[in-house]
Amino acid sequence: MSNTNLGRALCAMVTPFTGTGALDLDAAQKLADRLVTEGCDGLVLSGTTGESPTTSDTEKTELVRAVREAVDGRASVLTGVGTSDTRHTLDLARAAERAGADGLLATAPAYSRPPQDAIAAHLWALADATELPVMVYDIPARTGVRIEPDTLLRLAAHPRIAAVKDCAYDLLGTQKVMAATDLAYYTGCDEYVLALYALGGAGYVSTVANAVPGAFRAIIDAYDAGDTALAARHQQLTIPLTELMMSAGLPGAVTAKALLADLSLPGGGPVRAPLLPADAPTVTRLRAAHDALVSAA
Fold this sequence. Notes:
By secondary structure, the chain is of the alpha/beta class.
């Protein structure tokens, strides 16, 4: 199994905003503390779920500082620095390092659809820019371009490219890279937590864990204890909520914040445009799935 000091049970944390749309650092600290207390050993800030396209560089840096203070060494703190501009990405990475981040998350540059050698050069430059480990985020559905397995094999030669957040839905390609490198593989698809972990993955980066961190931690804890049947049951119990939160036509940031708000938990509240809040019927379905999961766990 891959080893990494970034943790096993990571949450792709939402970025809380106040009612007026400002960054809510107090809510972020309370949410971070709750997530760690309930089983997360790593938090990933300013990713897709963290609404990174609509937060400023200053807000991203402030968020790192606030969350690092809240978790106080109990969990790793990674932050997204992926942009479509290599210079901007490097600036964000250096700011994150100064703010105390434990690692960086970076996608392929979106929209411009660079070829594979350009993607490799972009990510290599990022890894050269700081002393922090880099988690490469392969999510072609959002960036418009895949980080191909052969590119990941090349990137694995860099000592600071340490991990992959895998949202490529290519289990064959994933296993090809896992078999040939020491990269720590994390699933970014909540329905694949057990599958990738059983194949030697390092853990997961979960959006649904914003609402139910313990339910996902239970999957890998049961597997580590040797009870594969229990691990499978825990995974299956999460599927109805995962489907509603991640596959029902709304971004995870929207559904996660809607559910947290309905549960009166830190992190619930508004999203930033162009995202729109979930409607009342969606919230009702989310709450019912959440309650069913909690009662069955």
